[in-house]
Amino acid sequence: MIVCSRPLKPVIPARAGMTMIAIIAVTLLCGIEAVHAQAYPTRSIRFVAPYVPGGGVDFVARVVAAKLSETIGQQVIVENRPGGGTNIGSELVARAAPDGYTLLVGGVPNTVNAVFFKKLPYDVVKDFAPVSQMTTAPNILAVHPSLPVRSARELIALAKQRRGELTFASAGIGSSNHLSGELFRVMAGVEIVHVPYKGGGAAVTDLLAGQVSMYFGTTPSTMPHVRTGKLRALGVTSLKRSRAAPDIPTMNEAALPGFENAAWHGLLAPAATPQGVIDKLHTEVTRVLRLPETIDRMAAQGVDVIASSPAELAAFIKQDLLKYDKLVKSAGIKIE
Questions:
Q1: Using alpha carbons only, what angle is made at residue 56 by residues 108 and 294, rounded to the nearest 5 degrees?
Q2: Which of 133, 176, 251, 296 could form a disulfide with 266 if both were Cys (CB 3.0 to 4.6 A apart)?
C-alpha cells in the first residue's frame, strides 16, 4: 500500500475548479432530492379545495383523498379555503413550502381569474407545478320547481319577458358555473343577474330555497336534488349527454346550438416542488383515479376521469387561458 505523506494538490485551473464545485453541488442536491422523493410521504398531505364544502371540486377532492390515504399509508386531508373567487386558497398553495405536502385542487377559476383580474397574488403557469388533470364534468342547468318553465327554450322566453328579473347563482366569480351562466346570457340574448357564492354547496342551498332562479351546477352538487324532484334540470353544458343523466338534453340540443362549457379538476403543487415528488404524486394519484370503484363513483355523479400527465395538464392550462381570454373579451364579461 502506498501512503501519501502530504495531501496531493490537484492541478486544476481555477475556472475548472469552480465548474467542478458547481457539478458536485448539483449532484449532491439531486441526491438529496432523490432521497426525499423515495421517502415521501412521511406525514399527512393537504388537498386545498378553494370552495366551501358540498360542490363539485369538494366531491372530487374527497373521493381522491380518501382512496389515496388507503394506498400511500398517510392521511390525505381536504381543507376548504373559500374566498376571493378561489384566489385565497390558490395563493395559500402557491406560497406553501414546495415539499409535496400542500396541494391545490384547481380548475376553471385558476385560468379565468388570470383574465378577469389585472393583478393576482399568483401566476397559474409560473407558480404551480402540474401533477394531473384528474377529472372533467359538465354543468347542469337547474331551476327551482316553482319557476314556470320545463325546457331551456321556455326559460329563455321567460327571461326575455321578465328582463333583468331572473338571477343565476354560481360557485364564485370565474367558476365554470359563472362562465356557463354568462355564455347562456350572451348566446340567448337575455338579461339575467349573476349572484356569486363561495362554493357550489352554498349556491345549491339558495336555489333549493328559491332564493335564486337558476344555477349551472356541477353534476355532483346538483344531480341528487334533480333525482328527488327538488330541482328541475333543463340541460347539460357538454356537447354529449351525461352518462349520469342520459335523459337530460344538452344545451346544444335544447336551445342553443354550439353551447359548450365544462368544469375540470386538476392537482397542482407549488412550483419548486422536486420533480421526484411530482412524479410520485402523479403515479399514486392516477393509479387511484383509474381504479374501477373510483371511475364508477365519479361516473355516478356525471364526472369523467382524465388522469393526465403533468405535461398534458400544463398544456391544457395554457389552452384554457386562451379559450377564456377569447370568451371574456368577446362577450364583454366583467367581474362585479
A1: 110
A2: 133
185 Cβ neighbours under 8 A, 6+ residues apart: 168, 191, 192
According to DSSP, residue 250 is labeled B
H or E element at residue 314? helix 310-331
Give residue for cell 398517510.
Answer: 74
- The string of pLDDT tens digits covering residues 222-233 is 989 999 999 999
Task: Answer for the pair 56, 220: CB distance below 8 angstroms, yes or no.
Answer: yes
Residue recorded with cell 355564455? 183
Between CA 95 and CA 193 the distance in angstroms is: 35
Secondary element (H or E) of residue 326: helix 310-331
How far is CA 227 from each of CA 57, 151, 220, 299, rounded to the nearest angstrom?
20, 17, 12, 15
Cell 356537447 belongs to which residue? 239
Three-class SS state of 59: helix
Cβ neighbour number for residue 66 with a 10 Å cutoff: 15
b (16+ CB within 10 A) / e for 140-164: bbbbbeebebeebeebbebbeeeee
d(CA 159, CA 30): 61
User: b or e along 228-241 (b: 16 or more beta carbons within 10 Å of the residue's beta carbon)?
Assistant: eeebbbbbbbbeeb
Ranges of H-type helices in 78-196: 87-94, 108-116, 152-161, 176-188
Q: Can the peptide bond before residue 121 be classed as cis, meaning omega within 30 degrees of 0?
A: no
* Phi, psi values for residue 137, rounded to 5°: -155, 140
Cβ count near 128 (within 10 Å)? 26
The predicted model scores a pTM of 0.80
Distances (CA, A) of 250 to 1, 305, 306: 83, 20, 21
**Structural domains of the chain ordered from first start:** 41-136+263-331 (3.40.190.150), 138-254 (3.40.190.10)
199 closest CA partner among 89, 94, 103, 85: 85
Summarize pLDDT for 66-124 with one digit per residue, the tens: 999 999 999 999 999 998 889 999 999 999 999 999 999 999 999 999 988 888 999 99
